[in-house]
Every structure is written in structure tokens, then in C-alpha cells.
Amino acid sequence: MTTLTVKDLLPEDGTRGTLAGRVWLPQANGPAVVAVRGDGVFDVTARFPTISALCEEDNPAKALSLTKGERIGDLDAIVANTAPDQRDRQKPWLLAPVDLQTLKAAGVTFAISMLERVIEERAKGNPASAEAIRKEVTRLIGDDLSKLKPGSDQAMHLKQVLIDQNAWSQYLEVGIGPDAEVFTKAPTLSSVGTGMDAGLHPKSTWNNPEPELVLFVSSRGKIVGGALGNDVNLRDFEGRSALLLSKAKDNNASCAIGPLLRLFDDSFTLDDARKLDISLNVKGTDGFVLDGHSSISKISRDPIDLVEQTIGKVHQYPDGFVLFLGTMFAPVKDRDAPGQGFTHKRDDIVTIAAPQLGKLVNRMRTSDECEPWTFGIGALMKNLAQRKLI
């Protein structure tokens, strides 16, 4: 991992927005909630013990702006100290900007990714079969379903046509049916942030990054801000069986969120988030380069609909949750042999970026090579209590 700088982190408008994050403080042997401002990084943990508590405020952006905090250093130095193999553990480093919230993800929310899931299912996890199946699926249902409203009469008619042709899929069910796919991505507190290694299961041979917008939602269902995310996916595991979804999605360091949480204010709103264009760049040590993008404006289900399908009278989240919105990115560029498509190799550098949210940068390693996750909810509560913050 190359040394990161502020340029590799901040949005294009710098610190104009209301930016929050988490930093590990060696002297406290624990995390701090921080405000990132033009004149430095400020510890606000005395006011907001967790990011979750900040998100519970009636107006989180205003509450953070009114909290002075204690300056702990320059953002440049903290960012540069974040990569695991370059870290001075006596100095602060960045963490993922999420703590007690449940980590949720919505799947199959874009037409193109829906088609790729159908292909994975039919290929049974074998990338060599994917190209022929891709042509067959496209012939049956087309490649532009962006105007098809999930749950509509038109969608239900298409469902019946596909059933009659023996081409229906469980992925089409959640892609164009009334109910969204929303699953738990990973355990609370297990996310990695920018500059850290992201993990792939060592037995996976067909996998890919998933560049996504991550919404931060309070326990009342209010969307308060956003960040970037990489919903790392194992196409071979999930393709073999949808019942392997948890193994395809939840492995050590396989949930990356960052670089910071941008709270909604006058400079960045939910409407701005709806129009985000998220770019993806993968650079391999073999010289391979993959570029892609995901436009939130092309999502099949509105973010509010996805949030409302996640929280309500039938499901509550007392500490709030974050929600990956899914991606339209579908990697079909061949990396090695023709027809084999894309899969990660060790030390790939993945950069997910959006002008309003900055850059999330991670190096890919197998999950057993990444830093073990050891600081869970119990450790956090004990640490905050020892510091007399709760």
C-alpha cells in the first residue's frame, strides 16, 4: 500500500461539508469520534461517545459543528499513518467511520447487476461458463431494465413470461419483485476503513469489488449522511448456492466503509446523494487496470424505499444502521484467459471515489492475511467506561 495523503481522502470541496470519522488513539487504547475540519482533526468523543450517538441527534451536522472538541493532529499525518504495514502504533490512525450501527446491504438494486447475479446462479460459480450464459440471459430479458419499476404490473407480466420460458431466477425475484433483498453484511464494528487491507476468502477464485453508496440511518429511520463502501463479493461462492451468501459476503475485512461520514447539510443532501456517480479503479501488480462506475441515479429502488424496507414496525435498530445501496458495476473484462472475466489478485489496489465523498482506498489480501478483528462491542464499552465517556 502506498502512503496515502489528504488528496487521497477528502471530497473535491475539501472540508466544506460536515465530516465525521473515527481515529484510533494509542494513548486511550481505543477509538475517538472526530470532526475533520480545515484546521485539523478534533476529538469530540466527550460529546458523542460513538458515531451511532452522533447520528441519533435531531440534526447531526449542526450538533457536530457546534462541538469544538480537542485537536489531536493534522489529517495528513493521521492518514499517512493508517496503512497497516507503515503504521507507527504510538500515533493515531484512521478507522472506518461506523461503530455500533448494524451493517446492512441491499442487493440486486440495479438492472445490470441483477443480470450478472442470474448469470452467476446459472454458471454455478464457474467463470468459464459465464460468457455463454450471459448471451442467453440477455437474449431472453434484454440488457436494459432500468425503466422497469419493481413490483409494477409490467414487472409482474415479465415475471410470468420468464416463468413460462423456465428462465425465472431468485435474483429476478428481488430485482423486479415487490420485496427488496436486504441482508446483514457483517458484524457490528467489523468494518475496515480507507488505507486498510480488505479481505477475500482464501478459497475464492472468482470475486470482485462492489463500489457502493452507504447511507447512515438513525434508529428512527432518518437518513443522516453517507460514505463510500466496498461490498466485497465472492462470485464463485454465491454462484454455487444462494445459501452461501453469508460466506460470500462476511469474511474478515470484507466490509470496507469510508473514508469519512459526510453528514447531510446545506452542502450535501439526500438529493445530492441520489445523483452520485461512483467510480472504481483496480490496479494490479501485474499491470492490469480495471475501471468502472455506478450511478445512483440509475438505481431501480429509491434509497428511501430501501430504508423503509429495512426498518419499521417489523424490524428495529436501536443503534441505527448503515445500508449499502447496491451497485450497477458488473466486472466482465477478462483479466487472464478470454472468457474468464475478472477476479482479484493479491495486492490489487482498489479505489472507490465520488466527488462529494472522497476516496476509499484498500489493498486486497486474503482474509487470513488481514489484521484480525479483535475490538468488538464488549471491548468498546469497557474502553469508553474506563475513559469515563459513558
- The number of helical elements comes to 12
Could you say what the CATH topology of the largest domain is called? Fumarylacetoacetate hydrolase, domain 2
Low-confidence stretches: none
Alpha-carbon distance between the two ends? 36 Å
**What is the CATH domain class of the largest domain?**
Alpha Beta
The main pleated sheet reads as:
11 strands, mixed
What value does the Rg take, in angstroms? 21 Å
Number of strands: 18
Please tell me the total number of domains.
2
Helix content: 10-25%
CATH superfamily of the largest domain: Fumarylacetoacetase-like, C-terminal domain
Structure classification: alpha+beta
**Topology as H/E string?**
EEEHHEHEEHHHHEEEEEEHHEHEEHEEEH
CATH architecture of the largest domain: Alpha-Beta Complex
Shape: globular
Q: Return the average pLDDT rounded to an integer.
A: 90
- % residues in beta strands: 25-35%
Keywords: Hydrolase, Metal-binding
Organism: Bradyrhizobium shewense
InterPro entries: FAH (IPR051121), Fumarylacetoacetase_C_sf (IPR036663)
Family: Belongs to the FAH family.
